[in-house]
Design brief:
The protein is mostly beta strands. It has one helix at 5-16, and strands at residues 58-60, 66-70, 83-89, 99-105, 110-115, 121-124, 130-138, 141-149. Keywords: Signal.
């Protein structure tokens, strides 16, 4: 036991040193500066578009299950009017439920919005500009992405 005591003490001291706390939830991957594309939309996200939707800014969620089609790019943080985003689910939706957006800005500010229509056209209302990590939940599905709002 005496030979193990120094090793245990070193491990305990290492665990007590100042470090960044682990986030409560896993933040979306990537950053706010990359990931928005103007390439053709995936076939499953083209309903209502003429042609393949090329040129329309969009971002795919980290899991690949939800697409944000950004009609205002960059999207605008406007707590009153919001910014228009079309949410397209790749996954089938048997019983539509609201799309819940849980947003955390890089400085820790939080916002939550519930879109009663579920995935589809919406007005996303965030309180302030910045890089926002969005956790998106709809009809039993979840995806995440990061977007910069101006």
């Amino acid at each position: 036991m005496r030979t193990l005591a120094p090793a245990i003490l070193i491990l305990l001291l290492g665990a007590c040193t100042a470090s960044k706390p682990a986030p409560a939830t896993t933040p979306p991957r990537g950053d706010c500066e990359t990931g928005v594309s103007r390439a053709a939309l995936p076939e499953w996200a083209r309903a209502g578009f003429t042609g393949d939707g090329a040129g329309t800014p969009h971002r795919l969620g980290d899991r690949g299950d939800l697409m944000a089609v950004l009609f205002n790019y960059p999207p605008v943080a406007d707590p009153d009017r919001g910014t228009k985003i079309l949410w397209v689910s790749r996954l089938p939706v048997d019983s539509p439920r609201p799309l819940v957006i849980d947003a955390v800005r890089d400085d820790g500010q939080v916002a939550r919005q519930e879109l009663t229509g579920g995935a589809g056209p919406s007005s996303v209302q965030l309180p302030a500009p910045g890089c926002w990590a969005l956790t998106l939940s709809w009809s039993g599905h979840t995806d995440a992405m990061r977007l910069r709002f101006t």
